[in-house]
Design a protein that fits this description.
The protein has 206 residues and is mostly helical. The chain has nine helices and no strands. Helix 1 packs across helix 2. The longest helix has 28 residues. The two termini are 28 Å apart.
Length: 206
């Protein structure tokens, strides 16, 4: 969720591309998001991206390299609302309320696949795709670290007790976020996701 450059873009070789690279990348991202890495074939990709095989290889190198770029593009998009939400509100509880509400909205948009691309990918990589598995683990770790940093600010501000187990609480909220993504994939409504997120905030009242 939190943005990180994972793969540098490959420079096209030979004649200039006759297609919009960013548009093609976004189309590939949505297809990977919907079907997963192994559920998306090369023919599926070139069809949805509207490019030839030669243009694909010249511009993106390989299916795996494209997937890395797609994850990076998704992380940039998700990172924008993720960071903005954590910076919202005066209290820690306000920030996480904003985060879960933003997630509920992002995971149920009508113009993109449902759920979280990174959370879904946790169940879409076979043992043979260990590099992609590590990529997903790293992205989830970055998101959890960002939550932990916000919780630490809460301790400094007096919102949270000094004895708060930041690792456990960040892990809990990370699990809730991933669960919201799975619920959305299963067809849960935006209202249900918001309700679940609000329920998770009850830990601040203990």
């Amino acid at each position: 969720m939190v943005t990180k450059n994972i793969q540098t873009q490959r420079k096209a070789r030979g004649r200039p591309s006759s297609f919009d690279r960013e548009t093609a990348l976004m189309a590939a991202m949505c297809l990977f998001w919907d079907r997963g890495y192994e559920g998306t074939s090369f023919d599926d990709l070139t069809a949805v991206m509207g490019i030839s095989a030669s243009s694909f290889y010249n511009s993106f190198g390989s299916k795996e390299a494209l997937y890395h770029e797609a994850i990076d593009a998704y992380a940039r998009q998700a990172g924008a609302w993720f960071v903005a939400a954590l910076e919202a509100g005066q209290t820690t509880a306000d920030a996480f309320r904003a985060l879960f509400e933003a997630a509920a909205c992002a995971f149920t948009r009508c113009d993109s696949p449902s759920g979280c691309m990174i959370a879904s990918a946790a169940t879409q990589c076979s043992p043979a795709q260990s590099r992609l598995k590590e990529l997903m683990i790293e992205q989830r770790r970055l998101a959890e670290d960002a939550m932990k940093q916000r919780l630490a600010l809460g301790v400094e501000a007096g919102d949270l007790a000094p004895t708060t187990d930041l690792d456990a609480l960040a892990g809990y909220f990370s699990t809730v976020m991933q669960g919201l993504g799975i619920q959305a994939r299963d067809g849960a409504s935006r209202e249900k996701l918001i309700e679940i997120g609000h329920m998770a905030l009850s830990v601040f009242k203990q």
